[in-house]
Here is the input.
Amino acid sequence: MGSWIRPACRFFSTSSLNLPALDTWITSPKSLVLSDTFHSTHLSDLYITLPTRDGTRSRSFAPPVEGTPLGYGHHLAFFHPRNHEALLRTDGTDADFCPPEPFSRRMWAGGTMTWYKGGELKVGEKATSVSTVDKIEKKGFEAGKPMIFVKQRIEVTGEGCNEPGMVEERTHVYHASVASGEKRVPREINGLPKSDFSFSYTPTLTTLFRFSALTFNAHHIHLDKDYAQKVEGHPERLVHGPLTALMLLENLIYHHPRAQLRTFTYRAHNPMFVNRAARIHGAIVSKDKAELWCESDGVVGMTAMVQFDE
Here is the structure.
């Protein structure tokens, strides 16, 4: 198992932090309401970006059809704040729901998506997302490695519906430390089942650029090699956490197109890097559950559990 450069934390003196300002930010109300339309043209751009749908495998390209159910996880390509560049952080990320400096290094940690009958989201329809902060945790402060975990709750409701068709919980972790360049081995993930089905692809720089454009994500860690190496301490640019999560869902639907999903819970364990072959695995572990995971160079990047709707 090859080693990788992780942005290991140097000891960070909490005496240098403005803790009253941080606590004020934590207790302040936070919400964001966005409206969007699940345009078939934008979804076509997503389809041509995803190797499960781009027509290069055994299946021809099939564009999205107006009025049909929105694909699982495809809302990720919508509902993005349109902030002008001067309002972005120095790493290109939006400042919405971000803690104050020096907590500027953001990583996508995991989340949950839940779909509800009766309010299904559809291609071509208008919808509204309401984002709030469900939970904020301070960790590692006593050890000199402070981190802030921010858990968002995002409710997406189709036009004319009274209840959300999908609710997402999304957790980001923000580091106050700088990358030390310390060489470390990846986290080992054990106890995974035998793979029942899989899908292989290589996330290229073009893949990362297209997904960044689709999600209006200017985070330098995905596109700027110097930034990824010299600022974040990684050996290469990182694959987006939501892209990996989406590929877990895509792999399941690619092999089980009739599956009806209720919940999808995932967790990022190790970074996935550009231009490195990835293999997405899945296993049906019971009549109502499946386990999903991805690996690259023998390292598990993300794991997930799916609960099927009966």
In short: The helical segments are 19-27, 40-49, 205-214, 225-231, 241-255. Confidence is low (pLDDT under 50) at residues 1-9. Residues 222 and 237 are 5 Å apart (CA to CA). The chain has five helices and twelve strands.
